[in-house]
Amino acid sequence: MGGLAIAPSARTTARLAAMSRTGGERRRKVLIDEAIRLFGKEGYNGTSLDAVASAVGVRKQTLLYYFPTKDALLEACMSAAGERLAHALEDALSGKDATWDRAEAVIHSVFALAQQWPEFPAFVREAGRLGPDAFQRFAAALDPLRRRAIAFLDRAMDAGEIRRQDPALLLFTLYTAVVGSLTEASVLRAVVGADKSRASLRRREREVVAFVRSALVPGEDASRASR
Amino acid sequence: MGGLAIAPSARTTARLAAMSRTGGERRRKVLIDEAIRLFGKEGYNGTSLDAVASAVGVRKQTLLYYFPTKDALLEACMSAAGERLAHALEDALSGKDATWDRAEAVIHSVFALAQQWPEFPAFVREAGRLGPDAFQRFAAALDPLRRRAIAFLDRAMDAGEIRRQDPALLLFTLYTAVVGSLTEASVLRAVVGADKSRASLRRREREVVAFVRSALVPGEDASRASR
DNA sequence: GGACTTGTCTACCAAGCGGTAGAGAGTCAT
DNA sequence: ATGACTCTCTACCGCTTGGTAGACAAGTCC
Prior knowledge:
2 copies of one chain form a homodimer.
Chain A: H1 10-19, H2 25-42, H3 49-55, H4 60-66, H5 70-93, H6 99-116, H7 119-129, H8 132-158, H9 167-192, H10 194-216
Helix pairs in contact in A: 2-3, 2-5, 2-7, 3-4, 5-6, 5-8, 6-10, 7-8, 7-9, 9-10
The first copy, chain A, binds a DNA duplex (30 and 30 nucleotides) through residues 11, 14-15, 18-19, 22-24, 27, 48-50, 58-62, 64-66, 68-70.
C-alpha cells in the first residue's frame, strides 16, 4: 500500500478537509475493512468486488477507482491487517521487560484483537492459504517485530530462562498455536453459537498460554529450578 | 497417478480402454480424489468443475453425470475424507489398550495420513471454513469414533489416569492442535520448500504429542505456573 | 471563468461459471 | 436384433465475474 501522504503536500490538507465527509482516504479505509471482513468470511475467490462495494454503499467502479484490480485490493488488505496487528503488538510490549510478561502480553494482545475484530483471524487464515506471494505483504509489516522477537528469544536462551531451541521455529510454533486456536474458535462459534463463544475464547487463551509455557520452560526434569 | 493418459489421437480406442477400466465406481473415486485435492489447494469457490474434470482427463459433463451439482460433489468429498480418516483411526486403534498408547496412536495416524496424502489437511481446513452445514458431512463419518473417544476419556478420568475435564472440549482441543499444526505445516512447506517439509512434519508431530501429554497429565505440573 | 483534479456514476464487454439437453457409442439381457 | 442401460461426449444457455470507457458533478487553482 502507498503511504498515507499523496504526492502534493500543501493542497492536499485543504482538499482532505473539504472532502473528509466520505471521499478520499477515509473511503479507502472503509473499503479495506469491508474487504477484510468478506475475504475472511467468504474467502478471496468467494468474494466479488460488487459484494465489497455494495456493502459500503458504493458501486463497484468506485471501488475500482481506489484499487485498480482485485489483487491490489487484496494487497492493501494484507498490509492493513499486518500493520494493525503490528501496532497492537507494539502497544502490548511497551513497558514490559520480563521474559514471561512479554510472551504473555503478545498472546493476550492477539486474543484481544481477535475479540474486538472477529474477522481478523479468519482473514489471516485465508491469507496463509493464498500462498506465500500474497502472504508476504502481511508478513512484511510484522518483520521488524519478528526480528526483535528472535533476538529477544536468543538472549533469553543464552540466559537460560527458556529452553534452547531454534528461535525461528519456536516463533512459528507460537504462530501456529495462536492462529490455529483462534480460527478453530471461529468454527466453534459457528457450531455452538455466539453467546458461548466469548467464554470459549477466553478459555482458549488460557490453553494457549499453558501450551506456550510448556514450550518455553527449560528442561522437563530441571523445570522446577526455572524460577 | 493411475495410468489413464488419454492421447489426443486414437480417441475411439482410448475411450474403449477408459470405459472398461475406469468407468463407473472407479471413475467416481478418482473424481472425488481430484476434487479433494483442488478444493484443498484452491478452495471450493476457486475450483471450477472444469478444472476437476479435465485434471482427470474427462469433460465437465462427465463429472456432472456422477455428481449432479457442485454441491453434491463437495458432499461426496466430505464423506469420503471423513471415512478415510475414520478407517485410518480404527486401524491405528486396533490392538492398543493403554490410555497413552491410544492417544499417541490417534495422533500418529493422523500425521501419517497427512504425510501420504498432503492434500487432506488443507481440505479439512477448507471444510471447516465452509460452515457447519457442509462440515457435518465430514464429521458424521467420525461421529461413532467421537462417541467412543468421549466414553473412553470419561472412563480414564474416572480411573484417575488423566486430568478431570470436559471430554468433548478436550477432544475439540486435540482437534485444534492437530489440524492447526498440520495446516500451518502446509504453509511452512510453501515457504521453506518441499525438501525440508517432511522433517518439519515429524517435528511438529513430536510437539503435538508433548502438548497433548501436558493436557492429559493429571494434577501436579500439568500447567506449571512458576511465575 | 476556464483548465484541471477528484470522486462517483451508468453502460458495457469478454470470459468463465454451473448447469441443461440430448446425441452417440458400447454393453447386456431377452 | 432389439430395446434398455451405462457412460461420455458436443452444443448451448443464462448468469456472474473482473475490468474498461467515458460521462458528469463538485471543488481547486490560477
